Amino acid sequence: MTTGVLWPHIASSLYRMICGLALALVTAVPVGMAAGRSRRWDALLSPFLYIFYSIPKVVFLPVIIVVLGLGDFPKIFIIAITVFFQIAIMVRDAAKAISEEQVMTMRSLCGTKWQDFRHLIWPACLPGILTALRTSLGIALALLFITETFAAFSGLGYFIMNRMEVRNYEEMYAAILTLAAIGIIAYMALDIAERKLCPWKK
C-alpha cells in the first residue's frame, strides 16, 4: 500500500461496486414500490422477481461479457442485476405493509400523491432499502472479486489473482485485507446512514 500499487485497483473496484449498487437502486426501488402499492403490478412483477431472484446470476457472466464486451459495464451490470432482485423484493414488502388506514389518514388531510410518497411511502420503504443494501454488500463484493478475475486487467480481484500467480504473497494478502476493509467500512456507513435517516426505527 505504501508504494501506491494498490490505489488504481482500489479505485477500479470501488467504481464498479458503487455503480453496480447505484444502478440496482435506481431501477429496483421504483419496481418494488410499484409492485407493493398496486395489486395489478404485483401480480405482473412478483413471479419474475421470485424466479430470477433464485437464479445465480454469475452463471450468466460469460454471456454478458460476450454481449457487452470486456469493459467495466459487464462487471457493473452483473452486480446490479444480482442486487436488484433483493432490493426490489424488500421494497415491495415494505410498500405492501403500508395499511389502508395510513393511506386514508393521509387522504383525509388532503395530501397529494407527492405528499403520500414523501411522508408515507418513502419513509416506510427506506429502512427496507438500507437493509437490502447492507445484506447485499457481501454478495456485491463476492461478485466484484469473481468478475475481476474474469477478463479484467484492473481491480482488487485481478490484483489478488495476479499476485498469487507470481507468488507475491505480501501484496496478495494486502489486497485481500483491503477488500475486506471496504466491506466493513461500507457496512458501517450504511448502519450509520440508517440510524440518521430512519430515527423512528430506534
UniProtKB/TrEMBL annotation:
Subcellular location: Cell membrane
Membrane topology: Multi-pass membrane protein
Record's protein name: ABC transporter permease
Predominant cellular place of this UniProt entry's protein: membrane
One cellular-component annotation, GO: plasma membrane
Record carries keyword Zinc: no
Keyword Transcription belongs to the record: no
Record-stated family: Belongs to the binding-protein-dependent transport system permease family.
Pfam family, one: BPD_transp_1
TM spans (from-to): 14-36, 48-70, 76-95, 139-160, 172-190
Any single biological process term in GO: transmembrane transport
Gene3D superfamilies: MetI-like
Organism (species): Megasphaera elsdenii
Keywords attached to this entry: Cell membrane, Membrane, Transmembrane, Transmembrane helix, Transport
Domain ABC transmembrane type-1: 10-194
Superkingdom of the source species: Bacteria
